[in-house]
Design brief:
The complex is a heterodimer of chains A (564) and B (658). Chain A is mainly α. Chain A has 23 helices and no strands. The longest helix of chain A is centred in the middle third of the chain and has 49 residues, at 262-310. Chain A is extended. With 658 residues, chain B is α/β, with parallel strands linked by helices. Helices cover 29% and strands 17% of the residues of chain B. Chain B contains 19 helices and 27 strands. In chain B, the strands form eight sheets. An eight-stranded parallel sheet of chain B has the order 15-14-13-7-2-1-17-16. Chain B has a six-stranded antiparallel sheet with strand order 20-21-22-27-24-25. The two termini of chain B are 44 Å apart. Classes of the chains: A mainly alpha (564), B alpha/beta (658).
Chain lengths: 564, 658
């Protein structure tokens, strides 16, 4: 809570979404002296992406999961100092193996460089994930750079994802089955529709925005999100926490693994994985259809038509102001340089093109990435809701079948006299509340529920009973029965006054028991007063027992709960 | 700067002393050194509605809203609506946690002997002020209590199972009156405060002070809502109905409206901040201070002089109430972070000018060393303490076995030790280790911030209020259903030995909790609000845990007997064989460097075992010791005290050096 365990908080955010109530979050971090649901907030937060909504935070997190590794591992490492680092690798390799052949040295150096990029990719992916979340939530962004957590995270991620999941499980399985990935790729024809479809829509490399190869083996397509993403991620995230705890107190604490919310994290990981994949692909596909297949041919045709009908393009007329003023001239130069088709723009583009292509930075890719990010934000919220909800439902089902309630605690909260807590009956379907209140209002206007004179507590209770009975009747849709209450109400009030007289406290927790005791007392009193000859029935109004049963017992059953 | 501060404190002390001389002390316990002056106290929080039903006649107190023929139509309608709401808000079956259950001030009076016997020095009563009648309906939140595993699906009364009312007292509408649910039923207008006066007098006679819980931040919900958000009144949709639109009254007379339904106008009298909800995910200070709390609670604008006068007037009223015989002991200030600091500063001066002995402590949610904003509050007010959520949360988690993040021995130790903690010392000494630590953990998010230590004295931190359970937190045995009674008792022992002012939530002394059931998930998790507020049970009742009660009572007594528990310094030791992450050995000893006559050692082990505490190694001066549970003094032999602990057991040893 106050100790800013943001890592847990990040994951627990999904739980909050899954509960579907922002006020729960509010209660967990804010003042909870007001135990009330936030009606307004719940309604206001219905939209999937609003500033500070969960989807918004996830979207930012996803965006930076893409951008930060791209900038650091993708651009910085690939573009800057590559040769220098390779030289260094060569020196290190030759220092360790003096007689190694130059081509082997080169091969190793390239491999080390690739490993460095991968390690940087893992670490920066986590930085991006946390950074996006913190920025979206206005929290201290420096926390995303906590090396104490990042180092163990990256180690476990490298071991878990690269060594165990990818090389061990995926490639190992492939080897065992005699279907090595490369061979499988070569052997598989490209035109198999299902294979292409599945690999396009269910598979992507680790936050790689490049279009997928259609030749990904099916087992990899199916296993990747679960084995490689989820297991490896679930193994590495608690390692981050462990690292932070270790850096602080020197303790090796496995509680982050024990207390990690795995179901929730499953939703978080899968939502991010598939959300991004689908969002990216949908835009990419749509772009292909709309721009490449429809707009570009149209544009080409329009250009041809224009040229054939108008003739050569005439240069635009430049105003005297722009011609004669230095500022105007400069603007003109800049505009010219940036104008599509101009020599300078072409030159800039030509120079940048290899870089952009290397980085897969096209307008189309940018659009697809943005769509992927948005969809990841939305889907992560939903997926987390589903997985945590599913886990909760499973736990509840288990409790319903095999669980137990602490007997001591049941005794503590069982109202006195309620020796055998019974099942609370299912609620009937009810009409709307407005109608209910109209009925109550009508009842009150008729004079039946509002007293003009001071009432005893039993009379007030009877009023309450009548009100509750009415609620229950309306719940059941038995509107005609309300009339009976109205008719029977004066007699009920009479009973209340009688209960006052004989000392029955109908408002007690177990009015029937108290009523019985009071009646016994009444009987003794009657005997003492020489009224032994008069039976209770003679003393009480006709049908008193039935009416009390109807009134009180129904109240307890229908109005407030079945006490058995 | 130091000189100015000293002068300021001197003047303040002088003023307080003068006023104290004038007003006379009503405290039954001497005040402590720290801000708030609570160190010598053991607090006991009571949710009035859930404590004890002293008189059943006020369970449906619709008589407070008479309907007479001579009334004007508006009043009659208002009263009628209140009557209907009152009737639908009472639950005699005590199965619907959101409704009124009948507890009242008379009940507190009747149970004063129990509280006196337990040994507590001050009770903190949930707000008793006139509350708005009404309810909120949330179809997605269950408030029904299940007593059987197979109780499934919906419940008997669908409305009651999802309704929450103002039984808790935090929907105040009249700061000058007592709510009809809590006062005696037959009290005529002139005698309507008598029951509270009786409580103060009898509590005082029992050596107990009464602290009022006061919320000065907001009023009650405004429903049906303006802005076109009128509830649909469907069973499956949110709904609410209130007789007042968040209005403020004074002695029953309307003084300000939050909303005028006739003109569809928000804040017509300018007593409130503009209407907007707090986004708790990313709240700004202004949003926290001016936004509405969940539930659509209109936020009072304390900068408006009229509002300030009204609230200060109410504070004066309650401070002066019954001042001839036994005034209130002070206030628990609710929702501190939601009101601007200057108001609290002014209020503090005002309170002290009326009664210098009045104690003040604030509920700054999540407050403690690690919450800089809460440190702003305690360091910039002169006489207010606050709840130490930081330490309390760590203690809860540790003893329940949640040994992650806050629930670690390290976190407990650091929070107890403050500037004597490992991180603080390392920071002070600097060096390579500190540099590396800093580099690896840039935000230092788990350490006690230097700024907090610089701004809060040890004396002040010792006066912060600590707790295991509160009306906002789930009961421990509900939230952690597998927590053993032994661990629970160990937590209680720790609470009373550690620094801070212990506050017992009613029922903590008998491990009161609702049982685990999936339907019992409230705000804050399993057993959270409102499931953390079951009806109090009493000795002899089914489920009463005498062993937990005995431990609590014993610890209350111990704390009162040994000042070292209230004013001593803290040290953690590590006997051979003890696990640094699973065991706690905490020593409370006098300040000053010399070995005092009495020290107290708290020993706890998760897995249990035999632990030899070498007194020389740990520089503990003791010639004999006695266990808190039995008053038998045992001489120390060979400078070693051997403590045998069962798993999750804690023992408290009083070490004497005579």
């Amino acid at each position: 809570m106050c100790h800013k365990n943001w890592h847990t908080k990040f994951v627990s955010l999904v739980l909050i979404v899954s509960l579907g109530a922002p006020h729960v979050w509010a209660q967990s971090v804010g003042d909870t002296s007001q135990p009330v649901p936030n009606v307004v907030d719940v309604e206001a937060s219905a939209g999937p992406i609003t500033p500070h909504s969960d989807a918004w935070a996830y979207g930012w997190s996803k965006a930076l999961q893409i951008l930060v590794p791209k900038l650091v591992a993708g651009m910085f490492l690939k573009e800057i100092g590559v040769e220098g680092r390779k030289k260094l690798w060569r020196k290190i390799i030759l220092g360790l193996h003096k007689h190694m052949a130059p081509e082997e040295v080169e091969l190793l150096a390239t491999r080390y460089e690739a490993r460095l990029a991968r390690v940087a990719g893992f670490a920066t992916w986590k930085i991006g994930a946390d950074l996006g979340f913190f920025l979206a939530n206005g929290e201290d962004p420096t926390r995303a750079f906590t090396a104490a957590g990042l180092i163990p995270y990256t180690i476990v991620q490298y071991l878990g994802y690269r060594m165990i999941a990818e090389k061990g499980i995926m490639d190992g399985l492939a080897k065992k089955l005699g279907q090595r990935m490369e061979r499988a790729r070569k052997g598989m024809p490209d035109h198999v529709f299902l294979k292409r479809f599945l690999s396009k829509w269910l598979y992507r490399e680790y936050d790689d925005t490049a279009p997928n190869s259609p030749n990904v083996p099916l087992r990899k397509v199916l296993l990747k999100p679960f084995v490689m993403m989820t297991l490896a991620a679930a193994a590495s995230w608690p390692a981050y926490d462990m690292g932070v705890l270790f850096a602080q107190s020197g303790e090796v604490n496995f509680a982050p693994y024990r207390e990690f919310n795995y179901p929730l994290f499953l939703g978080f990981t899968l939502g991010g994985y598939f959300g991004y994949l689908w969002g990216y692909n949908i835009l990419d596909h749509t772009y292909g259809v709309v721009v490449d297949r429809m707009l570009n041919p149209m544009k080409e045709r329009a250009k041809q038509f224009y040229q054939s009908s108008i003739g050569p393009v005439v240069a635009p007329r430049v105003s005297s102001f722009l011609r004669n003023n230095w500022c105007g001239r400069m603007l003109g130069q800049i505009g010219g340089a940036l104008r599509p088709g101009s020599d300078r723009a072409s030159s800039l583009y030509r120079n940048a093109r290899p870089f952009l292509l290397r980085q897969n930075l096209t307008f189309r890719d940018a659009l697809a990435t943005a769509t992927g990010v948005v969809m990841a934000g939305v889907l992560t919220s939903k997926a987390a809701q589903w997985t945590s909800g599913g886990w909760k439902a499973a736990k509840n089902a288990y409790f319903g079948r095999y669980g137990h309630m602490d007997e001591g605690q049941v005794k503590q909260v069982t109202p006195p006299g309620e020796s055998k807590p019974d099942t609370i009956r299912p609620a009937p379907v009810a009409p709307d509340l407005e109608k209910l209140f109209q009925e109550l209002e009508q009842l009150r206007k008729d004079g039946n529920l509002s007293a003009t004179t001071p009432m005893s507590r039993n009379e007030r209770l009877i009023d309450g009973i009548a009100a509750f009975e009415t609620l229950a009747l309306i719940e059941r849709g038995e509107m005609g029965e309300i009339e009976k209450i109205i008719q029977g109400y004066p007699e009920m009030r009479e009973l209340a006054r009688f209960a006052d007289e004989v000392g029955i406290d109908l408002a007690g927790p177990t009015p029937m028991i108290l009523a019985g005791e009071a009646l016994e007392r009444q009987s003794s009193q009657a005997a003492a007063d020489g009224l032994a000859g008069i039976s209770l029935d003679e003393m009480l109004p006709e049908d008193w027992e039935l009416r009390v049963m109807e009134g009180v017992d129904e109240f307890l059953k229908e109005g407030v709960g079945d006490n058995g | 700067m130091i000189h100015a501060r000293f002068s300021y404190r001197f003047l303040e002390c002088l003023l307080v002393a003068l006023l104290a001389w004038q007003v006379g002390s009503a405290d039954v316990v001497a005040q402590g050194k720290g801000k708030g002056g609570l160190e010598n106290d053991v607090l006991y929080y009571v949710v009035i509605d859930r404590f004890y039903d002293g008189t059943r006649d006020n369970n449906i107190p619709d008589y407070a809203f008479p309907v007479e023929g001579t009334m004007d139509e508006a009043t009659r309608h208002y009263n009628q609506l209140n009557r209907t709401l009152i009737r639908s808000s009472y639950d005699p079956s005590r199965r619907y946690m959101g409704l009124y259950w009948g507890g009242d001030l008379r009940g507190v009076i009747e149970k004063l002997p129990y509280l006196r016997d337990l040994g507590i020095t001050k009770i903190v009563v949930s707000p008793i002020l006139e509350n708005a009648n009404g309810w909120l309906y949330n179809p997605n939140q269950n408030y029904a209590l299940y007593l059987n595993r197979k109780e499934d699906g919906a419940v008997g009364n669908h409305y009651a199972a999802h309704m929450s009312t103002g039984y808790h007292g935090y929907w105040t509408k009249d700061w000058y009156e007592i709510d009809e649910h809590f006062r005696d039923p037959d009290s005529a207008a002139a005698k309507r405060f008598d029951v509270f006066k009786e409580l103060l007098d009898k509590a005082h006679a029992s050596g107990i002070g009464v602290i009022l819980d006061l919320t000065l931040n907001h009023t009650s919900s405004v429903y049906p809502t303006p802005d076109g958000k009128t509830p649909t009144w469907r069973l499956d949709d949110y709904g609410a109905i209130f007789a007042d639109y968040g209005a403020v009254y004074k002695n029953g007379q309307l003084v300000a409206r939050a909303y005028d339904p006739n003109r569809n106008q928000w804040n017509p009298d300018q007593w409130f901040h503009p209407r907007f909800d707090i986004d708790f995910r990313n709240p700004s200070k202004q949003m926290l201070e001016e936004g509405m709390l969940p539930g659509g609670l209109p936020d009072l604008n304390q900068r408006n002089p009229a509002v300030r006068d009204y609230l200060f007037g109410a504070v004066t009223f309650w401070l002066e109430f019954n001042k001839e015989s036994a005034p209130i002991a002070g206030f628990r200030l609710d929702a501190i972070k939601h009101v601007n600091l200057s108001f609290w500063q002014a209020l503090e001066w005002h309170v002290k000018s009326v009664n210098p002995n009045a104690v003040l402590f604030g509920e700054y949610f999540d407050g403690g060393y690690r919450n800089p904003d809460s440190i702003d509050f305690v360091s910039q007010t002169q006489s207010s303490s606050m709840f130490d959520f930081d330490l309390s949360n760590s203690v809860r988690r540790f003893f329940a076995g949640e040994r992650n993040w806050a629930g670690r021995t390290f976190m407990i130790e650091e929070t107890c030790l403050g500037r004597e903690g490992r991180a603080a010392k390392m920071r002070q000494e600097g060096g390579l280790l500190w540099f590396v630590r800093r580099l690896a953990n840039v935000a230092q998010n788990l350490d006690v911030p230097k700024d907090s230590l610089d701004r809060v004295s040890d004396d002040d931190a010792a006066a912060w209020v600590t707790f295991l359970e509160s009306h906002d937190f789930p009961r421990m045995k509900s939230f952690y259903p597998n927590m053993s009674d032994e661990a629970y008792k160990s937590a209680i022992r720790f609470l009373f030995v550690a620094r801070g002012v212990p506050m017992l939530m009613y029922g903590t002394e008998t491990a009161l909790a609702i049982p685990y059931h999936p339907k019992h998930e409230g705000f804050g998790g399993m057993g959270g609000d409102p499931f953390n507020r079951p009806m109090m049970i009493w000795p002899g009742d089914p489920g009463w845990k005498a062993d937990v009660y005995d431990v609590t009572k014993q610890m209350v007594e111990l704390r009162k007997r040994y000042s070292v528990l209230r004013y001593g310094k803290t040290r953690f030791i590590q006997p051979r064989g003890a696990s640094p992450t699973g065991d706690l050995f905490m020593l409370r000893e006098p300040y000053g460097g010399q070995l005092g006559p009495v020290s107290v050692l708290y020993a706890y082990s998760t897995k249990g075992g035999k632990f030899a505490v070498n007194l020389q190694t740990w520089q503990i001066g003791a010639s004999s010791y006695e266990l808190a549970s039995c008053n038998e003094s045992v001489p120390v032999r060979g400078d070693v005290i051997t403590i045998d602990l069962r798993p999750e057991e804690a023992k408290v040893l009083v070490l004497s050096n005579k």
